[in-house]
Design a protein that fits this description.
Shape: elongated
Distance between the termini: 41 Å
Structural class: mainly alpha
Order of helices and strands: HHH
Number of strands: 0
Strand content: under 5%
Length: about 60
Amino acid sequence: MMCENATKLASDKLDRRLSVGETFRLRLHLFGCDACSGFVRQIGMMRKATRRYVATDASDPDER
């Protein structure tokens, strides 16, 4: 699998459940590709940070 396809699948995984075949191919690619593994970690951290931000009361400046 090429990196372009792997990053697309990693992004798709945020919105939908991947098929067994897609999951297998993505994991296999991530096992051997440090760049794509880093991308997956980054989008995971961004998702977590976004969820934390949404969970706080944005109208209360002391919560930021």
